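hiii so um. not sure if this is the right channel but i have a protein structure encoded as tokens and i wanna go backwards to a sequence. like what aa goes where. can anyone help
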């Protein structure tokens, strides 16, 4: 087991919203990932879900958040944001997050968990190494996973792959 960071009720509220977005993605034929950008006052600024079903496998919600933030926020505002996400950023999204200068990341489930589930289900590894955020962007503060919400995320991924969770 990897260490788990204590999350507060606000964190869990936004993470629940992310899991809802992930479920919405799955229901729409996409992979179950959802993310929310929150400002320093706890207001949701932007939210998105996975949109890779069209064939562009870079359409991750965390990447869209980075691009939205670069277009709409000052560097100071970006640094004060928190990105909540159903699944920890992949290396592409971790890099985008860091280049754009966003703040803390809170995830419901970790990349390590997702890899372990895939392995358990006999799935081949993806084309990108499942590196933790801090192996890609060591300056970013991270928190997660959440025990209960990560179980919900696991169930969504099991549904995606047609296996019993
Ligand atoms: Zn990504």
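sure thing!! here u go:
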């Amino acid at each position: 087991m990897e260490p788990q960071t204590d999350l507060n009720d606000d964190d869990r509220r936004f993470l629940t919203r992310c899991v809802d977005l992930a479920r919405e993605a799955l229901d729409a034929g996409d992979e179950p990932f959802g993310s929310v950008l929150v400002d320093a006052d706890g207001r949701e600024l932007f939210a998105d879900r996975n949109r890779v079903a069209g064939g562009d496998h870079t359409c991750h919600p965390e990447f869209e958040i980075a691009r939205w933030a670069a277009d709409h926020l000052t560097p100071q505002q970006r640094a004060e944001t928190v990105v909540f996400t159903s699944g920890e950023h992949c290396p592409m999204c971790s890099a985008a997050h860091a280049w754009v200068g966003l703040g803390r990341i809170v995830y419901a489930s970790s990349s390590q968990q997702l890899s372990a589930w895939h392995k358990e289900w006999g799935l081949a590894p993806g084309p990108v190494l499942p590196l933790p955020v801090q192996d890609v962007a060591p300056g970013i503060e991270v928190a997660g996973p959440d025990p209960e919400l990560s179980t919900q995320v696991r169930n969504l991924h099991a549904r995606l792959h047609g296996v019993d969770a």
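oh and The first strand starts at residue 34 and ends at 38.
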